[in-house]
Amino acid sequence: MVNNSVTREAITRNQEKSFLEFVKNDKYYSKYYEAIYILFHTGLRISEFAGLVTSDIDFDNGKIKVDHQLQRTRKMEYVIEDTKTPSGVRYIPMTKEVKNCFRHIIETRKKPRIEPVINGYVGFLFLDKNDMPMTSLHWQHYFQHICKKYNNVNKEQLLKVTPHVCRHTFCSNMAKSGTNPKTLQYIMGHSDIGITLNTYTHVGYEDVQKEMIRVCGS
Questions:
Q1: If you average pLDDT over residues 142-155, what whole number do you get?
Q2: Where are the alpha helices (DSSP H) in the chain?
Q3: Which residues have a Cβ under 8 Å from the Cβ of 49 and sit 6 or more positions away?
Q4: Res 92 pLDDT > 50
Q5: What is the pLDDT of residues 12-39, one digit of tens each?
Q6: What pairing do the DSSP bridges indicate for beta strands 117-118 and 121-122?
Q7: At residue 96, what are phi and psi to the nearest 5 degrees?
Q8: Which position has the higher pLDDT, 6 or 121?
Q9: At what angle do helices 163-176 and 193-200 cross, to 10 degrees?
């Protein structure tokens, strides 16, 4: 059976553009624009993004080092864990726009009185009001509030936009642009190529037509 979860969880390019424009221009939520842009354009899992520290961002070589994730336990303890699978350990190339977003985040990063250290990691990109690293739950709540506000002022409704939707949207966009499946598998950190290939089962006729013309000519 075909897994159509990617179709359900991804949004269109126009919806993504509209959502990002809304965040960028919103008086309150604009402070999260760069983070949300990065999630839409890297395919990072939200726990991986939350675990990033300044030393993981290699501006000279234009890549993001992903080798851990930040989690918060039921006992409200912060822990650093390995990536979801061994394949999750990877380097993700940064576009110029993503690089600029990271620069802005680091330049405007909150300066805590005491830097939080979690399992030896220091320099987390986003800190909460208690000067502790923001976790996946923080970002999920922000997305819920942003989506609700977006739907209140826009005729075209977005039923649900989450960090997970950002990841699936990135994967879908990369597949439609003709990215090699093995390349996309690496970027996404999928342990099974079948997970990645499911994305390719949802391209439409226009996508196929464009690919045929690109490869074979008109």
A1: 93
A2: 5-9, 13-25, 33-42, 46-51, 96-107, 136-153, 163-176, 181-188, 193-200, 205-216
A3: 35, 38, 39, 139, 163
A4: yes
A5: 999 999 999 999 999 999 999 999 999 9
A6: antiparallel
A7: -60, -40
A8: 121
A9: 70
Dist. CA 65–CA 112, nearest whole Å: 24
The C-alpha atoms of residue 98 and residue 211 are separated, in whole angstroms, by 26
Q: At what angle do helices 96-107 and 33-42 cross, to 10 degrees?
A: 150
Residues forming the active site: 45, 84, 164, 167, 190, 200
**For residues 118, 105, 158 and 144, what is the CA-based torsion angle, rounded to 10 degrees?**
40
Cα Dmax for the chain: 62
Q: Which residue has the tokens 């830097």?
A: 115
**Rounded-to-integer distance, Cα 75 and Cα 184, Å:** 36
Whole-angstrom Cα distance, residue 32 to residue 146?
Answer: 10
